[in-house]
Amino acid sequence: MMPMEHTLQLGEILKDGMYPVESEGGDNWRILHGDTLKLVKAFQPGTFDAVITDPPYASGGTKQNERNRTTNQKYSSMSPEKALPDFDGDQKDQRSWTHWMAEWLYDVRKACKSGAPICLFIDWRQYPSMTDALQWAGWIWRGTAVWDKTNSRPQKGRFRQQTEFIIWGSNGPMPISRPVSCLPGVFRYGNPQNRVHVTEKPLQLMKDVVQICEPGGRILDPFAGAGTTILAAAQQGYQAVGIEVTDAYFQLGTERVREALKEEVDVQ
Predict the structure, then answer these.
(1) Is residue 5 part of a domain?
(2) If residue 155 lies in a helix (H) or strand (E), which one and from where to where?
(3) 93: in domain
(4) Can you tell me whether residue 53 is helix, strand or coil?
(5) Within a domain: residue 1?
(6) What CATH number is attached to the domain comprising 21?
(7) Residue 71 near residue 42, CB atoms below 8 Å
(8) How far apart, in whole angstroms, are the C-alpha atoms of residue 248 and residue 10?
(9) Which intervals carry biased composition (Polar residues) (predicted)?
(10) pTM (global) more than 0.85
(11) Spatial distance between the Cα atoms of 54 and 206, rounded to a whole number of angstroms
């Protein structure tokens, strides 16, 4: 892991006078509290070397009344008394979700360096819409990797829905000479135990995925959630910037990243 040299400052990444009301951070990481649609417009051009994120899928149902359920109702089987906080932005229909995706993806691209890779998690229901939005926003779609969750609820006479997808691309040409090794196309990790976010991804999965970025680069996660991508990036020696709109997850994510990195330093 590369040494942590300084606290990531807002002036390094945001235009003057466009700071969020609240942000938290430490050595080589920072999470901004606010709406992604607004905050992505505040970044200085060419700030990021990669975008890696798990946006709200607005999925979990084929009918609008099913999509309008809370995120816990759609994605969790926990009892109400044990349920994790719901997160914002997951009740859009498919057309509005696609438009929303294209809008922030367009502004994020302007904040990225030429050739910067982007990785977007999604399920099968919104896969076609996400590839449309990515290309409408000017990114080059380069392929799809697979997250094999290794297990799922069995359905008689049907294939198991045990995979999610990582749609990836780049901001224009992506030189083959980048100092990045060949990455796998399939990642096999079970869902994390003791999750703090309804749709949390495994930490080791994110440690693998962030390696699409050049060593020491700056990674943006516009939907930071529980801070898994931010933590994985920081632990792998990258700078990491996140955005989170939901109050509960802004607090949970920043606390989680800070405590995990502090424990790592204490051990060293």
Answers:
(1) no
(2) none
(3) yes
(4) strand
(5) no
(6) 3.40.50.150
(7) no
(8) 22
(9) 70-79
(10) yes
(11) 10
